[in-house]
Amino acid sequence: MRSNALEKKNKETKLLSEMNNLHQISKTVEEALIVIRTYASQLFPYDSGELLMIDAENKLLENKISWGNVVPALDIISTDDCWAMRSGQAHISKMDKPDLKCKHIQPDSCVHICIPVLTQNENIGILHLITDSGPAKPFDDQIFNDKHQLAVILSEQIGLSLSNIRLREKLHSLSIRDPLTGLFNRRYMEEFFNLEIYRAGRKGSMIGVIMMDIDHFKKFN
Q1: Contacts of 40 by beta carbon, 8 Å cutoff, 6+ apart
Q2: How far apart are CA 150 and CA 96, in angstroms?
Q3: What is the model's pTM?
Q4: For residues 105 and 130, what is the distance between their CA atoms, to the nearest angstrom?
Q5: Mind giving me the DSSP string for 104-144?
Q6: What is the pLDDT of residues 29-39, one digit of tens each?
Q7: Contact 35/9 with Cβ under 8 angstroms?
Q8: How many angstroms from the chain centroid is the CA of residue 129?
Q9: Quick check: 44 and 147 in contact, CB under 8 A?
Q10: What is the pLDDT of residues 62-100, one digit of tens each?
């Protein structure tokens, strides 16, 4: 049994390391989400789950990814519907405490773990793990505690990775856009133009360029 537990721990550590390495080279949050879904399903092969993230405009939680057989309860929910979102701490929902279940969870015989995803002390979403504990699967405290601990580690790694990717996206945007107008600058034009020249050369096609000059634009500057 101890050997099996050690083997399982080593496998989880390896998967988390692989996920982190892929996040280091992910260009966008969308790419990172694909990586998270792939590795979350391997870290929790017998469970289901989802990652809910806050929409910056309406402050609602929106389902970004999910894995497993359990269909997410709702695509978009209020931040007040999740105990973990309000408290900033992990929350466990069980059948024996129906009044303390998060409102975004549908009635079932599963145990639900909601864990906040933090970036620089800011709560950006919830990692929601759904563990089957029906009559055919008696509840095991040790197995559940191991899953809980692993989910916490996963949520921390997700938060750190998404924070780094968003920072890289922001810095890249600042380097290719004019801060006053938000329009692409000369650096972007040069990068894009070189790529189009290469594509045209491969296809044997031509490139058309339109140049415009706005009179008296310095007044706006």
Answers
A1: 49, 51, 65, 67, 154
A2: 24
A3: 0.77
A4: 10
A5: TSPS-SEEEEEEEEEETTEEEEEEEEEEE-STTS---HHHH
A6: 999 999 999 99
A7: no
A8: 14
A9: yes
A10: 889 999 876 655 567 888 889 999 998 999 988 777 778
